[in-house]
Write a structure and sequence with these properties.
The complex is a heterodimer of chains A (475) and B (371).
Chain A lengths: L2 H4 L3 E7 L3 H12 L4 E4 L21 H4 L1 H4 L2 H10 L2 E3 L2 E6 L4 E6 L2 E12 L3 E3 L12 E3 H11 L7 E6 L1 H12 L4 E6 L3 H7 L3 H4 L4 H15 L2 E2 L2 E7 L6 E6 L4 E5 L2 E6 L1 E3 L2 H5 L4 E4 L4 E4 L12 E3 L9 H19 L1 H4 L3 H15 L2 H7 L4 H4 L6 E3 L4 E2 H9 L5 H8 L12 H12 L3 H4 L11 E2 H5 L15
Parallel strand pairs in A: 1-2, 1-6, 2-3, 6-19, 8-15, 9-10, 9-15, 10-11
Antiparallel strand pairs in A: 4-5, 5-6, 7-16, 12-13, 13-14, 17-18, 20-21
Helix pairs in contact in A: 2-5, 2-12, 6-7, 7-10, 8-15, 12-14, 17-19
Chain B lengths: L7 E4 L3 H12 L4 E5 L7 H4 L3 E2 L9 H11 L2 H5 L10 E5 L2 H16 L6 E4 H7 L9 E5 L3 E2 L2 H14 L3 E4 L3 E7 L2 E6 L3 E4 L1 E4 L5 H7 L7 E10 L9 E4 L5 E4 L5 E4 L3 E5 L4 E3 L2 H14 L7 E12 L6 E4 L6 E5 L9 H14 L17
Parallel strand pairs in B: 1-2, 1-12, 2-8, 4-14, 12-21
Antiparallel strand pairs in B: 3-7, 4-6, 5-6, 9-10, 10-11, 13-16, 13-17, 13-19, 15-16, 17-18, 20-21
Helix pairs in contact in B: 1-7, 1-10, 3-10
Classes of the chains: A alpha/beta (475), B alpha+beta (371).
């Protein structure tokens, strides 16, 4: 029997995404006796943060670091829990009635769940600088995937640019792996350092502090770091040749390079959640959309919770605890008789979550990307799928397209295969800037399933359901 | 700020409303369009974009043919080509019975005095559409039909209407329509507007406006589903339809392929809401699987649905109110109103300006639904 046929028609709990939140949520639910399925797009568990943890060729623990290997117990926990773990499963739709469209190995099916926990994590914020679409430019996250899954580093002269913990973590892992980094262009502004300072005290108690400081020190020892970078441009015709940058002191400088790794933080991956019309709000500090959730991470849609960084960026440790809490809430709802024995474990998870989230405001303010790196201008590409430029967006606002959906209808921005993942935030912010209103007022793309592409063949051979009635309307 | 009172209030900022405002403006009549969301938000902006005479209900053929004349010089009207391309529309027969249906159809259309629909055999079909499955045995072709970009078109009509003096208000929902003497008072949640004439072009919500004029119509709001693929190498120029099952199929210049054809999802018009029905989209995918083998590995990247008004007899309501003077209707286009947009606006403007039109609109009168 193929993997797709082996799925049941209905589960108590379906968890989507096998990062720290999904692993923890599925383990909790399954251990309590709920029929639990963990659907994950990757071939192995771990999500992005613990990607390839069961298969990575980098077995020396020193390269990827202790925080990476902290994922191992979560995978062990899952395996012992009795949850049905399904790798290679792409979830392409979710309805308000919790019907899930899933594809495995080229075959698709609709299954149902009484509770759904979305744990689809975060994705990297778009970094639309001039030339960012040139071959040779990639995100730090993509470089990290290569490193974790196949032990490979980018070749030639490598430059990292941007801000945020992941950029520094990648630099550190590259150094550990013996790769040479020609420069790290740090776009953290001096204004951010001042803004974050009042929150430094709470960060002093964060579990990230000591690890973070050590990591920064080790990177600075091995890599030339250029601070206060306020402008970036990837240079080259058809292929990256170098990067031109300017610091707060002024004066453009060009550094030749073969690989430019960009990163300016991560934002919740909202596509699945928004496609089922879960309420989201614009977060003015993290500069992204975040779902509106209660203390159990339940969303505005009955029976659907969001755990992990998809609930707002807080890191792997917080994701794990959020997953547990969402799992406990599912147990309370579906098997109240089993819930009593979890009271102390749940309270421990809530305490651990509070600890993990300490000092978050400091990081959020320090690494808040500067406006010029979020709101490009001129002929810098915004939508890569349809090659729409910043100027086109601004001009189209002037034509009367006042929101992302009119923009999509007019310019096709956001209509390509990435479904807005690479342009959505930029489009919202550009429209907000052009109209002089808040991103909350401008809104976001109306997202529709499939949230991940499926083939026509998969859809054509979807097993028939009772709802498949004859059509009556001609077009 | 006091605004000059308009001559006509058009309720609904879809293509038909904007086209009416534009054609009125060309006659020196000032229209105010009131749209509850934004212009082109529903059926007008998100439909499949077919510009088609092929397969029209017989009553619609004269209007459709007249509209096609406008489409072929659309830039002269709205200063924008609307993305209109004319590579023909084709409706295929998959078996002998279907081919016979098509053959009789072409005869009937000719008997009415129109020759835009032509019957072709398998050989010519294969020449026009090399990608078609070999089981297809013939087709009807309308060689100068085509397709356009719906949202771009609707926006172009709006902008040209505004340039000629029309006014468009977006984000205000008409809650009440009443008459005081010769003046219509149109109320929204935030304001009241007055004009001697009103036009109901409220699409999937038009029955509510009609009801306020004392005209009950059995309009059903439907959610027509569409899907689009990732770009593919160019393989087809005409817009394709089928005879025995619903299909609307075309490839855009950028390589993406649009698949529609009339399968409906769930419509909740009070919430501007549609829900996709994947079981029915699967039927649509199955049709394409059968007809275009090249599409079997195509990646579907997006599906959507738009809200549209449908009448039980599948033809629209166009013309004066049966209960009130100086009130007009244009709605219920039943999933094929896009191509008619340019001419319907012209008809309404003519009716308003002169009291009559040369085009045969009697079949579309609103009182055909009286019990």
């Amino acid at each position: 029997m193929s993997a797709i046929d082996a799925l049941r028609n209905e589960y108590d709990v379906a968890v989507i995404g096998a990062g720290p939140a999904g692993l923890a949520a599925a383990s909790v639910a399954a251990r309590a006796g709920l029929a639990t399925v963990l659907l994950d797009e990757q071939g192995t568990p771990g999500g992005q943060i613990y990607r390839s943890i069961t298969t990575t060729p980098l077995q020396s623990r020193a390269v990827l670091g202790a925080d990476y290997w902290a994922g191992s117990p979560l995978v062990d926990e899952l395996r012992a829990s009795g949850a049905e773990y399904v790798p290679g499963a792409t979830v392409w739709s979710l309805s308000r009635e919790r019907e899930i469209g899933v594809s495995i190995g080229g075959a698709a099916r609709l299954i149902a769940a009484r509770r759904v926990i979305i744990a689809t994590g975060a994705l990297e914020r778009p970094f639309p600088i001039p030339g960012w679409t040139l071959p040779g430019v990639m995100t730090a996250g993509a470089a990290q995937i290569m490193l974790k899954s196949s032990g490979m580093t980018a070749g030639g002269r490598v430059i990292l640019a941007g801000c945020g913990p992941l950029l520094w973590l990648l630099a550190w892992q590259y150094v550990n792996a013996g790769a040479k980094i020609a420069a790290l262009l740090d776009t953290t502004s001096s204004a951010n350092r001042r803004a974050a300072l009042p929150h430094a005290l709470s960060f002093l108690t964060s579990p990230y502090l000591l690890k973070g400081l050590r990591l920064l020190r080790e990177v600075r020892r091995a890599v030339p770091v250029i601070s206060n970078v306020i402008a970036l441009k990837a240079e080259g015709e058809g292929r990256l040749r170098g990067v031109t940058y300017r610091t707060e002191r002024g004066g453009d400088r060009m550094e030749p390079c073969d690989a430019l790794l960009l990163h300016q933080g991560v934002v919740p991956n909202v596509n699945l959640a928004m496609s089922v019309e879960i309420e989201h709000r614009w977060d003015d500090v993290q500069l992204c959309w975040s779902p509106v959730l209660d203390g159990d991470f339940a969303s505005s849609v009955e029976g659907i919770a969001i755990a992990g960084d998809g609930a707002g960026i807080a890191g792997a440790g917080a994701a794990r605890e959020r997953g547990r809490i969402a799992g406990f809430a599912a147990v309370r709802a579906l098997r109240p008789e089993a819930a009593a024995q979890h009271v102390s474990a749940e309270s421990a998870a809530r305490q651990a979550l509070a600890r993990e989230q300490r000092g978050r405001a400091f990081l959020d303010l320090l690494y808040r990307p500067a406006p010029q790196f979020r709101q490009p201008s001129g002929d810098t590409i915004v939508c890569r799928c349809e090659e729409v430029t910043a100027q086109q967006i601004v001009d189209t606002v002037a034509l009367g397209c006042t929101g992302p959906n009119q923009m999509k209808s007019f310019l096709r921005s956001g209509m390509g295969p990435c479904q807005g993942r690479l342009c959505g935030l930029t489009v919202t912010e550009l429209i907000a800037q052009a109209r002089g209103v808040s991103p909350q007022e401008v809104g976001y793309y109306r997202l529709r399933p499939p949230v991940k592409p499926i083939t026509l063949g998969e859809l054509a051979h979807l097993p028939k359901t009772e709802a498949a009635v004859k059509a009556v309307v001609r077009s | 700020m006091t605004r000059r009172a308009p001559d006509v209030i058009v309720i609904g900022g879809g293509l038909h409303g904007c086209s009416t405002a534009l054609h009125l403006a060309r006659r020196g009549i000032r229209a105010l369009v009131i749209e509850k969301d934004h212009v082109g938000r529903h059926a007008s902006g998100v439909n499949a974009g077919g510009v088609r005479r092929l397969g029209r209900h017989f009553a619609e053929i004269p209007l459709s043919v007249a509209s096609m004349e406008i489409w072929h010089s659309i830039r002269d009207l709205v200063d924008d080509d609307c993305g209109f391309e004319s590579h023909g529309q084709i409706k295929v027969a998959e078996n002998e019975a279907e081919f016979e249906t098509l053959r009789r159809r072409v005869e009937d259309v000719r008997a009415l005095g129109f020759d835009h629909e032509e019957l072709i055999d398998a050989r010519e079909l294969c020449e026009l559409v090399p990608a078609i499955s070999t089981h297809c045995i013939g087709a009807i072709v309308c060689r100068s039909d085509g397709a356009a970009l719906p949202y771009r078109t609707t926006l172009a009509f709006k902008r040209k209407a505004e340039a000629l003096g029309a006014e468009v208000i977006e984000g205000e929902c008409v809650t009440k329509v009443a008459r005081t003497g010769p003046i219509w008072r149109v109320m929204t949640q935030t304001g009241t507007y007055e004009a001697p004439i009103i036009v109901n072009a409220a699409g999937g919500w038009a029955d509510r406006i009609a009801a306020q004029l004392g005209e009950q119509v059995p309009l059903q709001t439907i959610a027509l589903m569409l899907m689009i693929t990732a770009p593919m190498a160019p393989f087809i120029k005409p817009v394709m339809g089928a005879t025995g099952r619903p299909l609307s199929f075309k490839q855009f210049p950028n390589g993406t392929v649009l698949i529609g054809g009339g399968y409906t999802g769930k419509a909740e018009r009070d919430h501007n809401h549609t829900t996709l029905d994947f079981a029915k989209l699967a039927l649509s995918a199955r049709t394409v699987w059968d007809l275009f083998p090249v599409m079997r590995g195509a990646e579907i990247v997006r599906c959507w649905a738009g809200l549209e008004g449908r009448m039980p007899d599948d033809i629209p309501v166009i013309g004066p109110s049966a209960t009130h003077e100086n009130a007009y209707h244009a709605f219920g286009f039943s999933a094929h109103g896009f191509q008619l947009g340019p001419i319907v606006g012209a008809i309404l403007a003519e009716l308003i300006a002169t009291g009559a039109t040369n085009l045969p609109i009697a079949p579309f009168r609103i009182d055909r639904f009286r019990v």
